[in-house]
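Sorry, I am new here, but would you mind making up a protein's amino acid sequence and the tokens describing how it folds?
***
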Amino acid sequence: MDKESRSLLSFACEEQLCSQGSNNITNEQNELLKDIVDFTWWSDRIMTLAKHGGILAMLNIGTGLKFQEHDHLYSMLVLDRIQQFQGRIFVLDSKVPSKPHRESGNVYNLEQITGDRKDQLDVSQLHWSLISVSKRSVPEMYNILISNCKYQAALDFANHHGLDGEEVLKSQWLHSGHGKDGINMFLSNIKDRNFVLSECVDKVGPTEDAVKALLSYGLQVTDQFRFSESEADEGSQIWHFRMARLQLLQFRDRLETYMGINMGRFSVQEYCKFRIIPVGEAAITLAESGKIGALNLLFKRHPYSLSPSLLKILAAIPETVPLQTYGQLLPGRSPPPRIALREEDWVECEEMVNFINRLPENHEIGTQIQTEPIVKRCLGYLWPSSSELSEWYKNRARDIDSFSGQLDNCINLIDLACHKGIYELQKFHEDILYLHQLIYSDENDVDVCSSMSLISWEQLSDYEKFRMMLKGVKEENVVKRLHDKAIPFMRKRFHNMTYFTQDQDTDSFLVKWLKEIALENKLDTCLMVFEEGCRELHMNDFFKDEIEAVDCALQCIYLCTVTDRWSIMAALLSKLPQKQDVGISIECFEKRLKLADGHIEAGRLLALYQVPKPMDFFLEAHSDEKGVKQILRLILSKFVRRQPSRSDNDWANMWRDVQCLREKAFPFLDLEYMLVEFCRGLLKAGKFSLARNYLKGTSSVSLASEKAENLVIQAAREYFFSASSLSCSEIWKAKECLNLFPSSRNVQTEIDIIDALTIKLPYLGVTLLPMQFRQIKEPIEIIKMAITSQAGAYLHVDELIEVAKLLGLNSSEDISTVQEAIAREAAVAGDLQLAFDLCLVLAKKGHGHVWDLCAAIARGPALENIDIGSRKHLLGFALSHCDEESIGELLHAWKDLDMQGQCETLSILTGTSPSSVSDQGSSITSPPAHGIEETINLKDYSGLAGGASCGDREVCFSNIKNTLNMVTKNCHVDGGTDLESFLWENGKLLSFATFQLPWLLELSKKADNGKKFSSLIPGKHYVSIRTQAVVTILSWLAKNDFAPRDDVIASLAKSIIEPPVTEEEDIIGCSFLLNLVGAFNGVEIIEEQLRIRGNYQEICSIMNVGMTYSLLHNSGVECKGPAQRRELLRRKFKEKHKPPSSDEMTKIDEVQSTFWREWKFKLEEKKRVAEQSRELEKIIPGVETGRFSVW
């Protein structure tokens, strides 16, 4: 009864399949086909029928047999077949609530529930479930019975169908307790040996006895597969059984080991795991857990299997485990001599080993067949080498120290290893002992030593370990620490080394350490060590010998950088051995000791004079001579600045100390240099009287007078330039210093400078402090300051020159520079007269820098004492020194001056002036001349004409034009400018053309002016007034670009060659004749001279000139420019009166016209007549030779 749904569910669920005979098939079919509510196909030939009463039956259509007998299945009258699979259907059914209901009318219950109507079902009263009905074969049905543990039914079914009944035994064995009973009842009756062996190998019984029984039965089964000589080719199945036997042996050995490890306690799970795990891994697991006893048992029972991983297993033991518990497991140099194993089984033979070796390397049961006898035969006993053992012990000790900090265990471990024969660990053992001693010693630095690990200690070099032993020592305990720890350590480390041989240069640990602490300036500690080490040098092993001790002491002294421990350094040297061993020469060290002693004394002196230097400075002092000299100067400088000032006795002591420094430390210094610096210090200190004595020299060194003077001068300059005013004491000190050498010229120069700055310059209004004077590079700047300091200062010419000389400007050029500065300042101030006088003086000296001032004064306004000659002199000087840009302008000015000078000269010679000459009816008067720069322009014309009317102006211009036409070819002006306008725009040109030009023309025409004067013009002999007037006219024409007329040039030539005349004058006249446009005009002048000359020499001279004139004109035809004509003229004049050669005459004949040929014949004839007349005069003196002339 279902209480929740109030429904009654009553179904039976059991099915049996059976077969019937074919009797009464038709009746049965008819009966079976009645009351069917549903059907479906079971297979192609069998149909499943569901009747109204809940009966499920199967009918073979082909045979008509029914496969269902008496059992009822209460099901829903709906069947459904799985279409894809034959022999399967689904049935909705429900279990019958209780057995009584099944027995008392099940069909009725179903009918009561369903009622009369088939389509009306009270589902709430039913509890349905879905079941599957499947087709099964005979083997399948047999296996189902076995799997359901229906062993009797299965045996009956097997017997009925002829099947093997062993499957039932196997199932019974598999479901048994795997004990002895199961073996006897089931396993022993199974004939399948593969199954039996697999069960013996794979199955683990619930108890130790069960496991042993199963293993023993397996060994019993495989015992029949022993090796036989008759079996030539054994099958793989037999080898399989033999391998299974090895597994059984391995599992039996593991069982015994497991039980021993677990003290007789058995666990199926743990044993299953233990028997298949590699024994090495099991050993590591035991080692990690600290089960030393179990590990020991494992080593005893499986020595060969564990030997390859022996060290790895032992390393897995926790570092905190006491060594005493596993010390017996630690390996020695060689393996144990005897190893106890069980008796070998017949399968553990060489043939089996060979078979195993042929197996694949990674065989699935490779580790499960490695019994100890097999491993012994395959691998033997693998024992680590000595190096591997040594390295393992070291690593083990390091791990113990790193993870537990138990250094005692490390010592015990290595000590045990040494006892086991691993002697390579002796040094390592000593290192650990030293570390232990270092850490647990009360004298060491606790913080540093306690943190020192074994690994860190090993990484230290032997010397670093030695240094750690001495870390933190002081003077009072260093000797004890050395004796107790450091020296024994050093002795052991160097016992087997070559350090103590004579040719070894490596420093010992003690020497290195002493040099390090010396570098830290711990000289007190060094002193204690050397005092102890040198006391019994060959007994205490501090030093190898005297040489090492001395060398180390010297190095320590020179490594020390302090400058206040000189007494300790000296005491340290005193502790060194004073005698040498027999056979050992330390002569070089004796020299070094002496040198070091001197350096100590020198260092003491330097510290005394407040210039401290360490000892190593003296070793390299010779390479830095400049630095040593600087130190010496610093000593003297500090000594000078000390207050109160030092007495003469102090200075004498100072000189002795300086000499001592040179002797002890600085022998490379020149004694003279040291005396110079000492005297310099005396002079700086103001000890002039004492300095006078030392400047004369000492008993050991003398000083040259030049150096003494320079020293005095330098000191005086320092005093002088440090003066803050012109009246302070430094000025007096400078003079006092210079008075040490009053007769020296150089010293006097310095005195002059001081006088100039303190006396002369203030008088001139210039106050310069010495430092200001020092910053002025050129003394001339000071002179310029004096010149411009106050109004009228330039007038003190002599005083300024004197000051310049005091300042060192003594040369002629320097004086000229001073005069130039004065002249310029005078010109600026408007004192042109003084500037003019100085410029004349400078021009005579050739001081070219003043050319611009000279040019300005020469072209300036008129002065009282400045004449045209002086102006020309200044302009000429300016022209010879000016720059290129100024040449043209200055040259033009010089020409104006020269023209004005020529006019003044003529005016003086003739007593006339341009103003005395006036044209007919002209009212123009000559204006007064005021200076060279004065010009007349259009605005001044009214003054020039004297207020003349326009008519007079036209007359004036007409006269000017007529006058110009008399001297020039044409008066045309380039550019189309009108001549009248051009003249009015150029006042100077108009003035000269109006006044000077007519006057000069008149002078050139007067016959009285033809007389030649010997001193008319300086540098020119026998020049007439007429000649000078014509030259002036030509100069003016050339200056203003006017071409002269031929008659003007001819007039000049005539005035020059008029007798009496010299050959030079004839040549000059001929030169002027060459400028004539008409060459025949020159011929007329020459012929005229031939007529009027009576002197034979003059006649020959003029004839030679004529010949040259003819030749030059003939050659001039080929000259294409002025440059060629000038060169031809220069060459002919150079030849002077040399007659033409025959070639030249031939050339003249070929080129020359008839005129020149005939004129040449005339000249030759005239010359012949002149020669005849000369001969006639010799014969008849006073004869009138003119009657014989044919000219």
